[in-house]
Amino acid sequence: MAVQIALEELERALPQGRIERGEEIRRAHAHDYWAFEAIHDVGGNPTTPPPAVVFPESTDEVAKILTIANEQRCPVVPFGLGSGVCGGVRPGGEALVVDLSRMARVLEVNDQAATARLQAGLNGAACERLLNERGYTLGHFPQSIAVSSVGGWVATRASGQLSTRYGNIEDLLLALEVVLPGGRVLRTFPAPRAATGPDLRQIFLGSEGTLGIVTEITVKLSPKPEHQDGFAVRLPTWEDGIEVTRELLRAGWRPAILRLYDGVEAQRNFSAWFPDQAPLLLVMSEGTNEMQGALELEIAAARAACLRRGGTDLGREPLDKWLGHRNHVPSWADLLGNGLVVDTIEVAATWDRVGPLHARVTEAIGAVPGVLVASGHTSHAYTTGVNIYFTFVGQATEEAEQERIYTGAWAAAMEATMACGATIAHHHGIGRVRRDYLPRELGEVGIDVLRAVKRAVDPNGIMNPGVLL
User: Fold this and answer.
1) Looking at residue 1, what is its pLDDT?
2) Most distant pair of Cα atoms in the chain: their distance
3) Which fold has domain 332-433?
4) E strand or H helix at 96, and its extent?
5) Correct CATH for 227-325 of 3.30.70.3450, 3.40.50.920, 3.40.50.300, 3.40.50.970
6) What is the pTM of this model?
7) Fewest CB within a 10 Å sphere: which of 62, 123, 255, 303?
8) DSSP element (H, E) containing 415
């Protein structure tokens, strides 16, 4: 078997202690945080774990791993911190998992250029804390920040909760280092902008480990915020909240948070202020003390836009509640143990298409037998459109029924999203859960281009097989 031969060679090529074969470690790397896998784990039918996990500590070691794996035609699955939710990690019994968690240093902070070089296995929360100590923020705050890696953010084209101000990962990424199958190392140039042909960074952004292993990134930094202000507002309709968001961005304002909850989610998450169902908009601006005047104008403009739409100002309390609890969510095991099938699905559309998106997707998911409720909120807004983050809750205790509800809800959401002319993924990536829908969005020619890139970069097909394509 290719994986066993590769492991024997890696034992000779790598320093002692890099390869782990323990049962607990292998089980922990059998899949990512995909809810579909949790259904099978809780049901007693877990995915087969990999035969071993390799923990490189340098780019050179990653290159040795991919050189040997490519020679032996051994599949390789990159692993950041395992927080992906789309099935991007599922090695089975015939692939090596390469865990980057030992490559977790801030290599350089350049104060003059306001940039940082980071190893790809660096934990997101640790990264932000270290940058804060130097007076900076990356401004990238996914809900998974405490359990995700900076390299994983690049691999999945991640977004953070304050993206409206700071941008998404593609806006923050200046350069990257990636090890290709066969061991060659590509390093892109960290320029503020370049016109040197197609942007090679974009080939690996969102590639989900199918083209190589990202080992280092260079990112741009912002000053650590010193001033922060915001409010929450109750709005008459979901459409009012959408229009407020669109108008503010079109006018040039960039609040760090413009987060709109539909009535179902507002009541569920902010029950103290919502005895009945009505949409809730959270608004927050932040920046340096020198920006305080501009930030006050931004908040005033947002409040005025909400009031023009009949909004009721609720003050800061709901915003502070969200800030304090935004990353606290029950585990899949806890939810499934209580007979609840839950997941989130994030999509996006331009403003001219976003109107029916919320209604059609929630209606489609809600029609799946066993689904109790489907709801949505926006979390990332642009001058051209907005994402909607849908949540569904179903009820079942048997594994087969839980799987039916889960796959049915996802299929309904994808079909309704495509019918509205929206994109099927905003920031969690494709993995396996969206893979079969990708050709319908990209088209035959688009898929052919991706396959051609895959053949050129990974001719032996060893990198994360079964994902994306």
Assistant:
1) 84
2) 70
3) GMP Synthetase; Chain A, domain 3 (3.30.300)
4) strand 96-99
5) 3.30.70.3450
6) 0.96
7) 303
8) helix 399-419
